[in-house]
Amino acid sequence: MEFLVYTLYSDFFRSKNLVETAWHGTTEVTRDLISHLVQKDMMAESDPLGNACDLAYAKLLKSSRPEYVYKNVLLSKMVFGRHSPSTTSWLYEFRAGDARADAVLVNGVATVFEIKTDLDDFSRAQSQLKAYYSCFDRVVFVVGNDQVNKALRELPDYVGILRLSNKCQLSEMRSVISYRDELSSEAMFHLFRKNERLALQNRYGIYTDHLPPIEQYSAAREAISLLPPNIIHNDLVDAIRKRAPALKKAAISNQLPDSLRAAAFGYKMKKSDWELLSSRLREPAFKALETNVI
User: Fold this and answer.
1) Rounded-to-integer distance, Cα 28 and Cα 249, Å
2) Whole-model pTM?
């Protein structure tokens, strides 16, 4: 029973559930969550639906904590605490080589964040590091209490380590150090978008217009791969910084409970969807109970 309730709390924050709650005013998950919280006298049906959101998140904070909690706490500390949305770019699920980083923060420099909850293992850590360091020079692992010793033991000294405590406080166990020995100009080339790649080619006098379209990409890749990785890395960081300014996402998240920050920054929902969801969360919870399930 406890596992089913925990799953209910977690499922509420899934992208599909939030979108459908915005569009239709409710979902089966949203209805079940409200009913559970009302039955446990944790909220009243007349309370705003947003109360259910906050209560579900509070329960997740005290549980074994899914990855969403790590992302939300990390985002709150890094973008809204240590830095500022006006000077920071923050991207979730960023593909780098054969790996996908949980988050990348760009604030003058770029830092990759890899999350390992207490339910995760380190079986892929070395392959992830190889992929990340081919494109970025700073990597930080965010781990739970039970993973700290393993992280300190198995990860290179230049990898930063943040611990998410049982009280959901982030503390630095080891500082991150810039490491550029494995940077690859070719690996970084694949991370540039088309317009960024064309700007990069112009910057270094690499012209491929005379070639058939099918050959232009490979020719540009080969030319860029011969350039110094440190220079291409600086170009990549600058391109990513311009790509996803946190200020726009922050404007959306400021309309929502703090528990939805990671969702606002990470989910591919339209601005109008977020505005509609914000409106739904201010309505009394009984409206979600009365609405037909989709």
Assistant:
1) 28
2) 0.91
